[in-house]
Amino acid sequence: MKHANKFIDNSSFGKTGSGSPLEGREGLVYARVSTKRQETDGSGLESQEGRCIKELQGMGVPYIKTFPDSYTGGGDFMNRPAMREMLGYIDAHPHKKFLVVFDDLKRLARDTEYHLKLRALFTVKDVMLKCLNYNFEDSPESRFVETVLAGGAELERHQNRRQVVQKQKSRMELGYWPFPSRRPYKMVKDPVHGHILKPQSESKWLKEALEGFSVGRFVRKIDACRFLVEKEYWKKQSPEKYIDKFTEFLRDPFFAGYIEYPKWEVSRRKGHHEGLISLETFELNQKRLKSEGLGKRIRLDISPDFPLRGLSTCANCSHSLTGAWSRSGTGKKFAYYFCQNKECVYNQKSIRKTDLESSFDVLLRKQVLNKDVELILKKVFDSVWDEETASLKNNQKNQNKKKIDLEEKIKELTYLVIGAKSQAVKDVYEKEIESIAKEIDAIDEDSSGGVDMSVPYRTALNKATVLLKSPYKVWQKLDVAEQHRLFYFIFDEKLLYDIKVGYRTDKIPTAVRLFKEFVAVNTANVEMPGIEPGCIRVS
Fold first, then answer.
1. What Cα–Cα distance (Å) separates residue 301 from each residue in 2, 136, 481, 484?
2. CA distance 317 to 103
3. How many CA atoms lie within 13 A of 260 on its CB side?
4. What global pTM score does this model have?
5. Residue 510: which residues within 8 A CB-CB, separation 6 or more?
6. Would you list the domain boundaries of the chain?
7. Superfamily assignment of 4-156 in CATH?
8. What CA–CA distance (Å, rounded) separates 62 from 196?
């Protein structure tokens, strides 16, 4: 069978009489823009649509529908919403014949590979194409010219992108944000700086969250995320869903008033926009992020001979102390800890194993809870647990709703698969169905329905209380790997050891000290139920 779009020529085009390739066809318009400016100038969606409809009227082909697209860039045409919708519409009407009209070859695809694939797909579907600025003809010369034009459109796209990147990079190097507005800022015109970002009223909530995390008001990221959700800075999802986003905010110097873009080799520099937090606050947040990650990594080469290796640091240079055996002239072995930092004045200065470890034992024995602290621990633990379980139930409710929506989407895609004429289109729909099915399976696996939360609550509370009541007794019963895990339950970070004075006990941040300070400040509120759970680390 010869497809109609292979036989378009000037002698028959525009005639719908008997034998015309347009006979019985219905007209569809595909309009596409890639920038906001194009939506308002002569190449905008409305102007494209108007010219294409006028062309259909002149050809005597009834106009049915327009598919407007604002997708930017080249690549797979199935990534374009309107193109995907149009192909679905054609598949949903297998007994009809269509003519698709667009105003310029560049609107079809700005990528040579996908231009040819899209043309082939239209041929399989028996869809005729009409371009206002180019005539499709079935000849070697025409196909060559069409390929060259498609390649030229792709080259132009890459050149445009290169020019845009060069201008944006130059703007960044001058201390300006060259991309679209980012929340909670708005791009405004300034008589001195041109376009510049200005913080909006809601920026106060993000500022409070970032500063609160730096000083420990929000001990965990989830606490800061809950705060932002409560203030309706974020609205669409549960706080847990925003943890990664908040981590990005913490690591981004933009909110401290600086510009940085390693991808384009733009080093950090002072920006012209107003920062939400100070550079000092930003650096405090980096320190907290580092202590959450690398600082708490358990060594792989831990040894029962040196249980505090990797947990103690040199008070002079902050480098970790290592441990090793030494042999005297008589052949007797001695165990020592020492600093390996060549820049440190205490480099290779030996610390007897018994001195350091006995000093640590003394420190550990001091970490005990009094009755007041034990009471506040339980109340804080209760509040945190209630908040976590409530959040878990709410998340489960949202997941159930999402599952129902996904199941409905699978039904819709199944109908599209049944009606699709092309195997290529069927493959796309089936791949999407498979992806959605995996998402549903993941939701089922994460489901916490039917779990008795009282059991893990009692276990966790008992363990936390016992450990904080007498961590030294627990420490003595554990192997080295478990001791390292317990260490970061008791202490917030590695301990500074001074060769002259031992451990600096006045600067050690511990879970016990945090609880004691909380009691000292909130003594009058111990019996009150409204204790903010996000202020104390309990795990």
1. 73, 70, 10, 12
2. 69
3. 12
4. 0.41
5. 367, 490, 491, 492
6. 4-156, 185-292, 312-361, 371-469+509-533
7. Resolvase, N-terminal catalytic domain (3.40.50.1390)
8. 49
Rounded Cα distance, 493 and 509, in Å: 7
Kind of pairing between the strands at 185-190 and 194-199: antiparallel
Residues in CB range of 170: below 8 A, 6 or more apart: none
Secondary structure element (H or E) that encloses residue 63, with its range: strand 63-69
Cα(67)–Cα(101) distance, integer angstroms: 11
Spatial CA neighbour of 169 closest among 262, 302, 248: 262
247 and 221 in contact (C-beta within 8 Å)? yes
Enter the tokens of residue 177. Answer: 């944000």
Hey, which residues does 322 pair with through a beta bridge? 338
pLDDT tens-digit map of 474-533: 888 888 888 887 787 677 678 889 988 888 765 555 554 444 444 444 443 433 333 333
Query: Among residues 539, 536, 538, which one has the least CA distance to residue 521?
Result: 536
What does the block give as tokens for 161? 């992108």
Determine the Cα angle at 518 with ends 515 and 523, to 5°: 120
Decide: residue 147, CB within 10 A, 0-12 exposed, 13-18 middle, 19+ buried.
middle
410: tokens are 């699978």
Give CB contacts under 8 A, 24+ apart, made by 174-181. Answer: 175/259, 175/269, 175/270, 175/271, 175/272, 176/259, 176/271, 176/272, 176/273, 177/254, 177/259, 177/271, 177/273
Q: Which CATH number fits domain 185-292: 3.30.2420.10, 3.40.630.30, 3.90.1750.20, 3.40.30.10?
A: 3.90.1750.20
Non-local (6+) Cβ contacts of 168 within 8 A are 178, 179, 264
Task: Report yes or no: 206 and 185 within 8 Å, Cβ to Cβ.
Answer: no
Structure-token match 């990797």, residue found: 310
Mean pLDDT confidence for 139-159: 63
Alpha-carbon distance of 48 to 477, in angstroms, equals: 78
Least confident of 6-20, 333-347, 432-446: 6-20
